[in-house]
Amino acid sequence: MNPGAHPQHSSHAPEALALKLGISSCLHGAEVRFNGAHKRDDLLLGTIGRYVRWVTVCPEVEFGLGIPRETLRLEGDPANPRLVQTQARRDITEGMREWAKFRLATLYQNDLDGFIAKKNSPSCGVFRVKLYDANGIPSGASRGIFADELAKAFPLLPIEEEGRLRDPVIRENFIERIFAYHRLKALLRREATPADLVAFHTGNKLALMAHHPDGQRDLGRIVAEAGSKPFGDVIAEYSKLFMETLGIWATRGKHANALTHAFGFVKDFLDGRDKTELIGLIEDYRRGIVPLIVPVTLLKHHLGRHPVPEWIRQQVYLNPYPKELLLRNHV
Fold this sequence. Notes:
alpha/beta; 2 domains; disordered N terminus
């Protein structure tokens, strides 16, 4: 199937999507916290749980620290923090890193599409985990030891924290990325040809434009070189920049510009009233008056009714994930 014409339509059954997400075990409900409690995230599990299969990880318990256990904290240099037991003063940094590399080898076999980590955790935290000096005084921020090894081992993998996913913009961006990564991996697994890469890029043009227009153009230049450079190098370069581009948050202004670009393909088929209505809704979205779902729905309606090029009708941007997630109702 042409990957550029294969968005994840909502008609797909959840089982058919087969996305796999890694998750800190406590967020999934396992009682593995230092005090024997859990941090089950019902909002998160309820939002995307029916569309994914979960792969749970608790670095501290799996490493062998037990339940309950002494608390840990990060100390020292932000670029090379130490993982230390707060009371015994035992430094377990190297042991945790070695265990993490072993565990990541098993996660590689799971073929993850993303990972959701526990915020503030000295093992799992991804962003601004508190860093202390030897006297227990906060001295900065760093990244959890397991999270650091995870990010190094899987540089393209979408990784987020559950706390940040409360933000609707971050949540929508993360879920868009996990579905995009799933499609990208499907392309890579099928021993893609330059023509396949062209089709994949064509199908993602609007999505990339909504995140970073310069990135979309740079990716186009990479695709244009597919016939003149070693294709393995081309697709590796493309994959890296593709995920980096989608990792840049799409603003209202960039979304509106992408919608306006798509409008250009249908405007000649619309009467004055329909043109005014669609352009008005795009501008209402740009100004924050209506959510993204409103202009996107009307645009899809017009694209479906008129003889526009098939590639614009099949843009992944129009159906980046199941509509039942309602993510575009809140951004």
